[in-house]
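Please review this one:
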Amino acid sequence: TSFPTRRSSDLALMVAYPADGGAAFDRDYYVATHLPLVRHALTPHGLTGVAGYFPDHVGDMLAVAILTFTDAASRDAALASPEAAPVFADIANFTTATPIPMPMTVA
């Protein structure tokens, strides 16, 4: 199996959804509706990939999303764009958790 090669300039945004206080998370909605919304809204602004990850055993996290961008400027512009507003507004449709965004550099 070969793995895609990342450029050293790729940047990511990790969004963690903590399981604090018994927070709810609708995986089906997240996968079927939210992730496609993210792709549609942010790809024109430099989004190169998005994936959702779910722990095998719920502990501290309900889910983690990894969004990759061509560079920091693209990431920042995408998140500040008017197209990002529906993405942020949609969060309440699948979780009661407060997302924790963490900008990252891809190794």
